[in-house]
Specification:
Elements (H helix, E strand, L loop, with lengths): L1 H16 E3 L12 E4 L4 E3 L10 E6 L4 H11 L2 H8 L2 E6 L9 H7 L5 E4 L4 H5 L7 E5 L5 E6 L5 H13 L9
Parallel strand pairs: 4-5, 5-6
Antiparallel strand pairs: 1-8, 2-3, 2-6, 4-7, 7-8
Length: about 180
Amino acid sequence: MKKIIFIAACFLLTSFGFSQNPDSKIKKLPSITIKTVDGKTIKTSDISNNGKPIIISFWALWCKPCQKELSTIAEVYDEWQKETGVKLVAVSIDDARSSSRVLPTVNGNNWTYEVLLDVNGDFKRAMNVNMIPHTFLLNGKGEIVWQHTSFAEGSELELIELVKKLNRGEDISEKK
């Protein structure tokens, strides 16, 4: 019985957690100064991918679903990049006390993503991230076209399908 309730809860979270972005006021990335894991300062508005889609995933060390999502995508990320040219940027929202553990976690999981540190939460607030994992999909023009919160097994398959649609020039911002 517990398993059935758990599965139903996961389904509901996934169903309600996914949303497209037609009404969002955020259309482009805000210009917030944050750091890379190696200490370099960048502006979030400078995040780009040569006209190809970008996935931005907000996560934290304490968030097990976040790490599960990033690890699941890591297993297929090389294939995704070869097939679609997509770039994933993982944004840690861990504070200054715990941010020193982000790079060892990234290396320990063999994540080859670009990883940014949002230790003050400025980028998170500017993007209206209230729950993690929170994943955004940007088209080749850098416009936010889709987002979702939470993670369930298989949701990465929907994400890559959306990336493929973007590459084909299909509009994914309209509800079907």
